[in-house]
From TrEMBL:
<feature type="transmembrane region" description="Helical">
    <location>
        <begin position="37"/>
        <end position="54"/>
    </location>
</feature>
<dbReference type="Pfam" id="PF13493">
    <property type="entry name" value="DUF4118"/>
</dbReference>
<keyword id="KW-0902">Two-component regulatory system</keyword>
<dbReference type="InterPro" id="IPR038318">
    <property type="entry name" value="KdpD_sf"/>
</dbReference>
<keyword id="KW-0418">Kinase</keyword>
<keyword id="KW-0547">Nucleotide-binding</keyword>
<keyword id="KW-0812">Transmembrane</keyword>
<keyword id="KW-0597">Phosphoprotein</keyword>
<keyword id="KW-1133">Transmembrane helix</keyword>
<feature type="transmembrane region" description="Helical">
    <location>
        <begin position="12"/>
        <end position="31"/>
    </location>
</feature>
<dbReference type="InterPro" id="IPR025201">
    <property type="entry name" value="KdpD_TM"/>
</dbReference>
<feature type="transmembrane region" description="Helical">
    <location>
        <begin position="92"/>
        <end position="111"/>
    </location>
</feature>
<feature type="domain" description="Sensor protein KdpD transmembrane">
    <location>
        <begin position="16"/>
        <end position="120"/>
    </location>
</feature>
<protein>
    <submittedName>
        <fullName>DUF4118 domain-containing protein</fullName>
    </submittedName>
</protein>
<keyword id="KW-0808">Transferase</keyword>
<feature type="transmembrane region" description="Helical">
    <location>
        <begin position="61"/>
        <end position="80"/>
    </location>
</feature>
<keyword id="KW-0067">ATP-binding</keyword>
């Protein structure tokens, strides 16, 4: 799978997720007589939400646990000890941790939904771009192939994709079928689990009626990529955009 662009920042995100609630508790402890327990808990929940909003689950969980520990140490008696003697303070601490964990999961769910929606919007843009290039006739056939190949590369997270006329003749090449299922050596490959074959080709045949007019060859060179079934289907649909074309020109 392609490396997460945010991965290099995760250690800093997680460190901040731990330290921010503790620092907030230290500051709030200076105003124990002026700020209610509920207010302090809500402030800590906001910090947990901020950590979860980064999309990093460990950061959200660490923030929730840090908020609970900080609340116990600095805002409940006896102070600076991981001991709570008051029943209401125990209830408040437990509720703070539970609510923070629930809020973390809700925030992460929203983050995933947002990313999924953005990804699908990107797929649609790619489909429209490829369809426009194939239909409008402003570009030569080779340029249309390049446009579609680029979008396939982006969708699958692969390193390269190129168009070749005619059917696939090498039986060793894995075939991505019209249903988005990858067949390799006669067997179905679970791409989401095992990834695209590394240093090998994956062919996406393009049919025009009963004939195979050509195919796109996709390669994952440096490391495996793990596209979803949805991404595989999008790649197949992108490849179909060149079906009206032939080696000599447009239909």
């Amino acid at each position: 799978m392609a490396a997460d662009a945010g991965a290099p920042r995760r250690p800093w995100v997680r460190a901040t997720a731990v330290l921010a609630p503790l620092l907030a508790c230290v500051i709030l402890s200076a105003f124990r007589d002026d700020i209610t327990t509920v207010t302090s808990a809500l402030i800590l929940v906001v910090l947990v939400v901020a950590a979860a909003a980064t999309g990093d689950r460990p950061a959200g969980l660490l923030a929730a646990l840090s908020a609970g520990v900080g609340f116990d140490l600095f805002l409940t008696a006896p102070y600076l000890r991981l001991v709570i003697t008051d029943a209401e303070d125990i209830e408040a601490t437990v509720l703070l941790v539970v609510i923070s964990l629930v809020v973390t999961e809700v925030a992460l769910w929203g983050y995933r939904q947002q990313r999924r929606a953005a990804r699908r919007a990107g797929y649609l843009d790619g489909m429209l771009d490829a369809a426009r290039a194939a239909i409008e006739g402003d570009l030569p056939v080779g340029a249309v192939h390049d446009v579609v190949a680029r979008h396939i590369t982006d969708v699958l997270g692969a390193e390269d994709c190129r168009w070749f006329p005619g059917p696939v003749t090498d039986v060793r090449i894995a075939i991505l079928g019209h249903d988005g299922v990858l067949i390799r050596n006669g067997r179905e490959v679970d791409v989401e689990r095992s990834g695209l074959p590394v240093d090998e080709y994956v062919a996406i045949p393009v049919h025009r009626g009963a004939d195979v007019v050509g195919h796109f060859l996709v390669t994952a060179v440096s490391h495996p990529h793990f596209p979803t079934h949805e991404q595989l289907r999008v790649a197949v649909l992108l490849a179909r955009q060149v079906a009206p074309l032939d080696a000599g020109g447009r239909a």
